[in-house]
Amino acid sequence: EPEGAPYWDRVSPSAYAADIDLPALHVGGWYDPLLAGTLAGYHSMQGDGRAPQMLVVGPWVHIPWSRRVGEQDFGPDASSRIDQLQLRWFDHWLKGIDTGLLGEPPVRLFELNGTWREFTSFPVPTTACWNIASQGRAGMDPADGTLRPAAASIGEDVVVFDPWRPTPSMGGHAGQPAGPLDRAGTDARSDVLTYTTPELDADLCLAGEILLDAAITCDQPSFDISAVLSEVMPDGRVFELASGHRRVDTPVSPVRVGLRAVCARIRAGHRLRLSVAAGSFPFFPVNSGTGLEPARERLIDQRILTLVLDHAGTVLYLPVGC
What is the CA radius of gyration of the chain? Predict the structure, then answer.
């Protein structure tokens, strides 16, 4: 069934999760491809007067839950203690043993580049608006595009998507393998627009949902937009923090892309980067540009797409706050 068909509404947990009033332990990872569903389940089942919910999100992929993820070692604190937590959870709810669990903060998030942080609910921090700028070469020179919490600039960048050499999925939750992998080579491709901050003067803390409003147009009826927020290390390596992807079949501007939630500390001297492309293959199917459903497309029908990203109408909303 195609995305958005009534079939998915009938089988989706969202059709009944809001009516379930049972205690639940929700466990996910920042690089877990199923994290969006984990968070949606938590949000649906928690609320005043309802059964207690506990949420734990580590720096992990779906499995295994270890301190080493992708090309990074998040330290001994990142080693999974989920087995012990599950035993405490079941001892409390199934055996009636007071494990002290309900006296602890119900939300525990691992801060990438930091350690565990505790919250009374999923964080809803202050949203900061960041804007892009370039001299029109953001797809040719990684040093040309800039990302700053400043007034919008006037200008645009053009990117061409070739379906016979599609932009690859690289690390993050959509890559294989998943996790923080150096995507500097992917960002250097001509079909990826990159916008990078100067070196940060102080630590920047992000905790919560990320949104991108992209003022983007295409010369074909249908296109995809893939957005990645990354940390650029002092040695030039680039590691994904969060990403989002959207197919656009109806012309609209700006296009809102929801990036995955994140909890991360970007150290002083490091930089943030927004990367924008028209594909992320093979995690997402190549958009032929025709507007046909992927299952009905033929390779011979695939079209080269030319997209234009307008700086003035493009805004990145970051959940800033420690």
Answer: 21
List the one residue out of 222, 228, 226, 227 whose CA is nearest residue 248.
222
Give the pLDDT confidence score for residue 1 in this predicted structure: 67
Residue at 105: amino acid letter: P
pLDDT tens-digit readout, 152-187: 889 999 999 999 999 999 999 988 889 999 999 999
Average pLDDT over residues 45-68: 90
Burial 180-196 (b: 16+ CB within 10 A, else e): bbbbbebbebebbbbbb
Cα(235)–Cα(162) distance, integer angstroms: 31
Buried (b) or exposed (e) across 97-127, using 16+ Cβ within 10 A? Answer: eebebeeeebbbbbbbbbeebeeeebbeeee
The predicted structure's pLDDT at residue 232: 98
SS (H, E, C) 255-307: EEEEEEEEEEEECCCCEEEEEEECCCECCCCCCCCCCCCHHHCCHHHCCCEEE
Higher pLDDT, 297 or 259: 259
With 0.90 as the threshold, say if the pTM is over it: yes
Smallest CA-to-CA distance from 54 within 14, 30, 95, 90 is with: 90
Instruction: Give the single-character DSSP code of 79.
Output: S
Close Cβ partners of 124 (under 8 Å, ≥ 6 residues apart): 208, 319
Which pair of structure tokens corresponds to residue 306? 């030319």
Tell me, what amino acid is at 155?
Answer: G
How many beta carbons lie within 10 A of that of residue 11, not counting itself? 8
Contact by Cβ (8 Å): 295, 286: no
Find tokens 């999100």 and name the residue: 57
Widest Cα–Cα separation across the chain: 65
Over the stretch 9-40, which tens digit does the pLDDT of each residue have? 888 877 777 788 999 999 999 999 999 999 99
